[in-house]
Amino acid sequence: MRKMVLSILVENTSGVLSRVSGLFSRRGYNIDSLTVGETQNPKYSRMTVVATGDEQILEQIRNQLNKLEDIKEITELIDGASVCRELVLIKVAADQKQRQAIISIADVFRSKIVDVAPESIMIEITGNPAKINAFIRLLEGYQILELVRTGVTGLARGSGDIGPYIDF
């Protein structure tokens, strides 16, 4: 089993997200992570889709996506040849005694404290999924009250991934 990260340039039209996610559900494939946002040209959005499967399943996903009219370009984001990041907000129970230890862990990971309450602290961390997972593991000794992940987003390194559809 391999994890594949796809950066997909799509027309920014209503229903495109439904058509892409429907393609996965109709075939019984799971989406591990999905992020979508408008590009510098509002006519287009970029989706970052993470899926796991064997080579045959991943190739089938890519082939099926290529058949959708709304999709203009698909790029696989290869580790080392791309930059992938994720944003996570974590609310941790923290009294006065625990607060400094949690802040110290947050500092090591270059994360930000975005809210402090009498009984909790909220941390914002951005990074690759491995960094995020390592940070969460270090917080397992504390009570995590809430956690939300945006999902992976990314782009290929260099200027090679600038599609012909983007007007600067």
How would you explain this protein's 3D organization?
The model has no long low-confidence stretch (mean pLDDT 92). The longest helix is centred in the middle third of the chain and has 13 residues, at 96-108. The protein folds into two domains: 2-76, ACT domain (Alpha-Beta Plaits); 83-153, Alpha-Beta Plaits (2-Layer Sandwich). With 168 residues, it is an alpha+beta fold. The protein has helices at residues 16-26, 55-66, 96-108, 129-138, and strands at 2-11, 33-38, 44-53, 71-76, 82-93, 112-117, 120-127, 144-149, 153-156. The protein has four helices and nine strands.
Principal-axis shape: elongated
Q: The CATH topology of the largest domain is what?
A: Alpha-Beta Plaits
Query: Could you give the count of β-strands?
Result: 9
Query: What's the CATH architecture of the largest domain?
Result: 2-Layer Sandwich
Structural class: alpha+beta
Tally of alpha and pi helices: 4
Helix content: 25-40%
Average pLDDT confidence is 92
Strand content: 35-45%
Instruction: State the CATH superfamily name of the largest domain.
Output: ACT domain
Number of domains: 2
Radius of gyration, Cα only, in angstroms? 19 Å
What separation lies between the terminal Cα atoms?
39 Å
What key phrases describe this protein's structure?
168 residues, alpha+beta, Alpha-Beta Plaits, 9 strands
How are the SSEs ordered, and which strands pair?
Blueprint: E1 2-11, H1 16-26, E2 33-38, E3 44-53, H2 55-66, E4 71-76, E5 82-93, H3 96-108, E6 112-117, E7 120-127, H4 129-138, E8 144-149, E9 153-156
Antiparallel strand pairs: 1-3, 1-4, 2-3, 5-7, 5-8, 5-9, 6-7
